[in-house]
Amino acid sequence: MDLGIAGKKALVCAASRGLGRGCAMSLAKNGVDVTITARTESALEATAKDIRDATGVNVTMVAGDITSESGRKAALDACPEMDILVNNAGGPPPGNFRDWTPDDWHAAVNANMITPIELIKAVVDDMISRKFGRIVNITSSSVKAPIAILGLSNGARAGLTGFVAGIARETVAHNVTINSILPGRFDTDRLRSGFAFQSQKTGRSEEDLANDAMAAIPAKRFGHPEEFGELCAFVCSQQASYITGQNFLIDGGAYPGTY
Ligand code: NAD
Questions:
Q1: Sheet holding 133-138: strands in order across?
Q2: How many CB atoms are located within 10 Å of the residue 62 CB?
Q3: Which of 14, 25, 151, 253 is deepest in the core (most CB within 10 A)?
Q4: Helices (H), the chain
Q5: How far apart are CA 200 and CA 215, in angstroms?
Q6: DSSP assigned state of 163
Q7: 11, 19, 68: which to mutate for ligand 1, most atoms within 8 A of CB?
Q8: What is the model's pTM?
Q9: Which are the contacts of 200, defined by CB distance < 8 A and separation ≥ 6?
Q10: CB 180 within 8 A of CB 231
Q11: pLDDT of 137-188, one tens digit each?
């Protein structure tokens, strides 16, 4: 399917690895020029080369912390007249809420709520004036089904989701949509680090924990970042202009509810 977005320009945050990288690659395969960010220059260079080699689009790299004001400014400066924004950042660490301080909460809310809101604020009016915009927030299945040890994530992402639900209804009249994609378990470094954390706590091997986790998913496997990217590209397509304010769960059937 031609998604009708060739020649558009996208900023994909936190995209040297994992789900952000999957989104950048899928957008690039559809002819979108991508600006990708991450904190480490060397990791970005490798990803940029892979995307260029696979697709031939223009890839711009911005090394910096997207959760900082300077990191966001550098990313925005590198991608003027942006058509597509994919909000992403590392997720907060797991733990027990009894151990978390206000600083831990502020860091989580800054990374997973305020950072995407600041980026939306910076670009949305320009998108509205140009009558095209697609904003996708990478959040988490925890928005629908909270995960106790990821309380920082549950809280911060619920805040972002509530905010987006309001403004997404204002922007759609101008062909600017704002949606979120909620990953279940995808095979990325982030997922593997969770098994390492649990392994330390329980003494069970990371492999055993991963096998148990896969067995509990109706699809009997973890998701691939590439399939996450394909959903992102569709949500950014011309065809998706009537879809806004939605939360798309992509989890191999793990969420057990009917709705
Ligand atoms: P990952 O660790 O595989 O990749 C994270 C990417 O973000 C890397 O490119 C890293 O360099 C970059 N990054 C991290 N912090 C950054 C920062 N402050 N500034 C710029 N770049 C930064 O993680 P992932 O699995 O792709 O997860 C992406 C998001 O999705 C995270 O917020 C995570 O919590 C969430 N999530 C992932 C899963 C999963 O199963 N993988 C499930 C639910 C939610």
A1: 59-63, 33-38, 9-12, 84-87, 133-138, 176-183, 247-250
A2: 23
A3: 14
A4: 18-29, 41-55, 69-78, 102-109, 115-130, 151-171, 189-202, 206-215, 225-235
A5: 21
A6: H
A7: 19
A8: 0.97
A9: none
A10: no
A11: 999 999 999 999 999 999 999 999 999 999 999 999 999 999 999 999 999 9
